[in-house]
Amino acid sequence: MGGRCLSFGLLSLYIMKIISYLIICLIPLTIYGENRKENRPNILFVFSDDHAPHAIGSYNGWLKEINPTPAIDKLAESGMIFVNSFCTNSICGPSRAVIQTGKHSHKNGFMNNGNAFDWNQQTFPKLLQKAGYQTAIYGKSHLKGKPLGYDDWAVLPGQGLYYNPDLIFPDKKRRIEGHCTDVVTNLAVEWLNQKRTEEKPFLLMVQHKAPHRSWMPALRHLPLYDDIEIPEPPTLFDKWTDNAPGARQQELEIDRHMDLNYDLFVDLTPGFHQERSQKAQDRSAWRNMKRMTPNQINTWRSHYKPKDAAFKKGKLSGKDLVRWKFQRYAKNYLRCVKGVDESLHTLQEELRKLGLDKNTIVIYSSDQGFYIGDHGWYDKRWMYEESLKMPLIVKWPGTIKAGSKQEEMVQNLDYAQTFLDLAGAPQPKDMQGRSIVPLLKGEKLDNWRKEIYYHYYEYPSVHMVPRHYGIRTNRYKLMHFYEFGDEWEMYDLKKDPDEVTNLYGKEEFLELQKSLKKRLKNLQKFYDDQSDTSVRPEYIEKYRKKS
């Protein structure tokens, strides 16, 4: 009996020693796990609307000489700039839906701006919340409905307005006086100071309306660029002679379609609306004028009145008129960009003041590129480079080598998985992008993508850009405009970066054409794009008459 008690005692002592040993071993792991959780980076994602990379100094486009973006350029000097960053569908809402879901438009259900986003589906902010992140979004959502996956939010209804905008908060809609870019920035600063939970890492999305049409700058920026001429793009007077017919039938030309009154503010004064149709009254610039305070409208008119008088006196026509319209448009566009650039500076200064800058990843991007007179156009939608490319600049203190340049092809399709990877959260298998974290760390990846897939769906609609899909490799691009028949375009981007010489159908390029078509079909299969790409006979007769 005593022997059995002795044996039991020895066994108990042995078990206690094992437990003690396990506790000693697990304590460091627990501490490590807690530290790892505490050290997860915050993410500040500043996102603008329609900001073309060539309107950012660090992208070395034809606008760099006027120094349009000093704060964004400084971000690039401190971090990494992606020179081959692309969207999957060049239009506001669909681009944002792709970012939310990490899925192409045909998978997330938001293919054009007329759709309504299903907020009940899987989105990366919801997954970040599950991983312990605090999330907030302020500014332009453009996805309809109340955002889900955010602990706090305030979003513009639809496109929103530049001056004294309404914003929808979780409890009610409120009008806030000021310029929209400043209003959104102030809401983000307020969140950092008053609503942030210090114990949690955060994702803060600051989404600006600027520089979206109708390009209404803050009052302090109205005189900016008054003393200079904006350089003209080399393709300002492109006639699209070598493109598929759709390029000649669009409705986004500075020449024929940019409105002197509602896009360029000539004669946009109180009372002017009485001679305009109700449809014209509903244009955003007119609605903004009606929302301005007396001081705002007086400052606005004082700036434009003498310029409008000089314009009328000149009685311009032809190319001279196009050049005048380009100058006013480009200057207002870049004035709106200036506000976004200042916002980025303000937000980074706030991070520094709060001691958050060392553990916060700062990202600047936009929903797509834009035409600033390129090919004679404004707006986006096409798969041509100016609207296909989107800016992406990332600063990650202690990880990214300052002044890095990344050549690999990335897309907005990659953002969701990148955010999850940064947070140490699982990446769902049904997401279609890839985390760019290895690229941010400077790793060389032999298996990175060699091509990207694009599909635009919004036709017939404003600007009348036909539906098309295509493939872009490091050097070549192939596009298919399918609704009006077998219309294709193919370009050698190395020899022809402005895409003015269509190689499709030329005998010496038939093998390349065949290869690109095969790769394009493989991409459609890989991304499971089974969209209807059939010819639409009901469009053809009208379309050909215009041609």
Protein described:
- The protein has 547 residues and is α/β, with parallel strands linked by helices.
- The chain is 36% helix and 14% strand.
- The chain has helices at residues 2-38, 70-78, 92-101, 105-108, 124-130, 180-195, 246-249, 278-281, 284-291, 294-314, 318-353, 385-388, 415-422, 437-440, 510-526, 537-546, and strands spanning 42-48, 80-82, 85-86, 134-139, 152-155, 166-168, 173-175, 202-207, 360-366, 392-395, 404-406, 410-411, 451-456, 468-473, 476-481, 487-492.
- A hairpin with a 2-residue loop joins strand 14 and strand 15.
- The longest helix is centred in the N-terminal third of the chain and has 37 residues, at 2-38.
- The N and C termini lie far apart (106 Å).
- Residues 1-8, 21-36 and 272-278 have low confidence and may be disordered.
Helix and strand topology:
Elements: H1 2-38, E1 42-48, H2 70-78, E2 80-82, E3 85-86, H3 92-101, H4 105-108, H5 124-130, E4 134-139, E5 152-155, E6 166-168, E7 173-175, H6 180-195, E8 202-207, H7 246-249, H8 278-281, H9 284-291, H10 294-314, H11 318-353, E9 360-366, H12 385-388, E10 392-395, E11 404-406, E12 410-411, H13 415-422, H14 437-440, E13 451-456, E14 468-473, E15 476-481, E16 487-492, H15 510-526, H16 537-546
Helix pairs in contact: 5-13, 6-11
Largest sheet: 8 strands, mixed
Q: Write down the oligomeric state.
A: single chain
Residue windows where pLDDT falls under 50 for at least 5 positions: 1-8, 21-36, 272-278
Radius of gyration: 26 Å
The tally of helices reads 16
> What does the overall shape look like?
globular
Report the end-to-end length measured between terminal Cα atoms: 106 Å
Count the strands? 16
Percent strand = 5-15%
Strand order in the largest sheet: 5-4-8-1-9-10-2-11
| Helicity level | 25-40%
